[in-house]
């Protein structure tokens, strides 16, 4: 922490609050300061300035980094070994499966996964990292005390247990469209490279990739079907020189030797929990790398839907499977590694 007084440390936060007609009076500034500090205290958030040791070094190295961050959860020095995974909010089953698998494979090797907590690919990336027992950092386009989208309360709690939420916006700031381009630049600045998994020709994911390129960071893209609108942007990135990604090996091979030396031997991929039993032994073999809907699992296994749901929940709790949005399931990267070892 620098030598500024506690109230002075919050000057940049107060300056970032929505503008009001005329200059703020001293009383208004003090009221805003009290409100911001109160909201931060109740949310368990802390203020980070660019001069602070905890401010991410990778972000501090880019031109004009955010003058402050508000953070919840734990930021570690080793989070500098980070890659961003971003993509469409309207992702296909293919995109969700690839993002989750890629995030899990990278997180299992000690890479922190950075994304934006949005629906679709971002969600799959965070969940994939968590499923592998890895680290993940969510960069928000709202205050760190605002859950957006609102259905992500459970995911937010999980991220806080195994990573951090950060924002460059004051406490209580709503998610507004103009915030996301700034958020996207911060995502790119936190990561050694950005991986785009499904993106339309005009999308926030492409903005993030563009910012990564401008900052001198690597840009990767996962190819998709030429008939898919959600893959047009990613395919275009590859045409323009982005590195094509078919698996985690393609990404890690591009890292400088100094970062490759920091990778772990998949120590994050702990063995799944207790062995499958009962209905689980009939359900698990039906799951692989491609997402499969719970109804299809029930149909193929011959097990009633209620029992299928119970078996999948148990397997998920044991770490053998991973649930994607829309009641679709894939085998976890950890379970795949264990079963094929």
Structural write-up:
By secondary structure, the protein is α/β, with parallel strands linked by helices. It is 41% helix and 15% strand. The protein has helices at 6-9, 11-15, 26-43, 57-60, 93-107, 121-131, 153-161, 179-190, 204-214, 232-239, 248-252, 257-260, 280-283, 294-301, 305-318, 333-340, and strands at residues 46-49, 68-73, 82-87, 112-115, 136-140, 163-167, 193-197, 218-222, 243-244, 292-293, 321-324, 328-331. Helix 6 (121-131) links the parallel strand 4 (112-115) and strand 5 (136-140). 45% of the residues are buried. The mean pLDDT is 89.
Q: Give the uncertain stretches in residue-range form.
A: none
The percentage of residues in β strands lies in 15-25%
Class by alpha and beta content: alpha/beta
Work out the radius of gyration: 21 Å
Written as H for each helix and E for each strand, in order along the chain, the element string is HHHEHEEHEHEHEHEHEHEHHHEHHEEH
What is the overall pLDDT average?
A: 89
Largest sheet: 9 strands, mixed
CATH architecture of the largest domain: 3-Layer(aba) Sandwich
Report helical residue fraction.
Answer: 40-55%
Number of strands: 12
